[in-house]
Amino acid sequence: AEYMGVRRELVTSALNRMSFLESQVDNLNYENRQLRDEMDDLHQYSRRSNILILDESSNLVEEEGKVGMILDQLGVSMSSVDVFHRLRAIRPENPRSRPLLVKFI
User: Fold this and answer.
1) N or C: which end of the chain has fewer CB within 10 A?
2) What pLDDT, on the 0 to 100 scale, is given for residue 67?
3) Checking phi first, is residue 5 left (phi over 0); if not, alpha (psi -120 to 50) or beta?
4) Residues pairing with 53 in the sheet
5) What's the CA gap between 88 and 81, in Å, rounded?
6) How many CB atoms lie under 10 A from the CB of residue 23?
7) Where are the beta strands (DSSP E) in 54-99?
8) pLDDT digits over 4-61, tens only?
9) d(CA 86, CA 102)
10) Model pTM?
11) CA atoms of 35 and 41, how far apart (whole Å)
12) 3-class DSSP state for residue 30?
């Protein structure tokens, strides 16, 4: 009988511990979701001053000309551009499909 009492205590203790850990996991999952949403909001804010240009040009002179032409069409001067550069290829089988990222000041 005493043995059963000790076992019952161990099982109750393990169940309480498991319940506590499940609660901790739920809290961490909620916090993780909140942080992901906040990070996405911050990234979205930083992307507000960027545009992507999809083209197939392969040299810097062509790229600069194309960026200048597009900015002229948008009514924006090249002096408002902080930097532009190529991103990774959208389609790995076609490395020339790398979009240009234009970041404004």
Assistant:
1) N
2) 81
3) alpha
4) 100
5) 20
6) 10
7) 81-86
8) 888 999 999 999 999 999 999 999 999 999 999 998 888 776 767 888 777 766 666 6
9) 9
10) 0.45
11) 10
12) helix
